[in-house]
Amino acid sequence: MKITQHLQEAQRTLFSFELLPPLKGENIGRIHEVVESLMEFSPSFVDVTYHREEYVYREVRGGLLEKRTVRKRPGTVGICAAIQHKYNLDAVPHIICGGFSKEETENALIDLDFVGVDNVLVLRGDPIRSEGRFKAEADGHAYAIDLLNQVVDMNRGQYLDPELRNTQATDFCIGVAGYPEKHFEAPNAASDLRWLKRKVEDGAEYVITQMFFDNRAYFDFVEACRAAGITVPIIPGLKPLTTRRQLQALPQNFHVNMPDELVQAVEKARDDREVKAIGVEWCIAQARELKAAGVPALHFYTMGRAEPTATIARAVF
Question: What range does the domain containing 198 cover?
């Protein structure tokens, strides 16, 4: 079932969450634990992230260093298929530019179509950590809007090989990311909004936002989107703060702003147990206000841990 159908048929604010694939060499057991811990809240869908390759350097004979490519979290397509089969829960794989050629993207989309996945979330993706800036594959996409248009083309039955005949059109519902505090690479909020509008005009059907810790950022973002003519559903993404380290790590990695009241409370906490309690209560307050405002869904970034999200959901849903 498409995400847009879930949202159209809903009589209330929906619950959804995001999963991280297990590290390479681990099994799917942890995924099942997280999903089963959150099934009591009747999730409408679950996102499954995709993590691109990383480079590692290993010493070889003669003291030289050999550069090797590793993928630490494979399995997105398989996890989506397993979740839909086992739990009858719609899975939304992240489709990213980084690390994929156009042909590899096409093949991944064919696989997803074959296993019955109806939805994709289209993202540019992060740069390789050691490189600092994003670099597209030689025959890949540099921007999310180009990747989006490849999915749209396949939904029209247009594949990369123009000589293919009797092609079967896919029917993916396409989501994209939105940034209430703007994408860190955008020169300003207005430019960021123009590109989001382009994505919607080109075929994006809903938006899921980056995490934020001040609801005013979300409300202002939605207001700006509506003023710009963006009418698709905009789903807020939430992440509870659970450790003191995240006070620096989340702004550094996700380029989000922490409200001063939250920062001061965390700084006064004696340990991470207290930090977690503060972060969960803050997220509960956010979720209650957003739900009261009638947002289409509350989407939680679990980072592979179900318990904080379950605590919040029990207080809100």
Answer: 3-316
DSSP output for 24-80: TT--THHHHHHHHHHGGG--SEEEE-----EEEEEE-GGG-EEEEEE-SS--HHHHH
Please list the alpha-helical segments (H only) found in the chain: 3-9, 29-38, 76-87, 102-114, 144-155, 189-202, 215-227, 246-254, 260-268, 272-292, 307-316
pLDDT by residue, tens only, the chain of 317 residues: 999 999 999 999 999 999 999 888 888 999 999 999 999 999 999 999 987 665 555 666 666 666 565 666 678 999 999 999 999 999 999 999 988 899 999 999 999 999 999 999 999 987 666 666 778 788 999 999 999 999 999 999 999 999 998 899 999 999 999 999 999 889 999 999 999 999 999 999 999 999 999 999 999 999 999 999 999 999 999 999 999 999 999 999 899 999 999 999 999 999 999 999 999 999 999 999 999 999 999 999 999 899 999 999 999 99
201 is known as an active-site residue: no
Burial of 285 (C-beta count, 10 Å sphere; 0-12/13-18/19+): middle
DSSP character for 135? -
Using CA atoms, how far apart are residues 241 and 244, in angstroms rounded to an integer? 8
Largest distance between two CA atoms of the chain: 67
Whole-angstrom distance, CA of residue 244 vs CA of residue 16: 26
Asked if 215 contacts 289 with a C-beta cutoff of 8 angstroms, the reply is yes
Report the CATH number at residue 124: 3.20.20.220
> What's the CA gap between 195 and 67, in Å, rounded?
36
Q: In total, how many domains does the chain have?
A: 1
Residue 315: burial class (beta carbons within 10 Å; 0-12, 13-18, 19+): middle
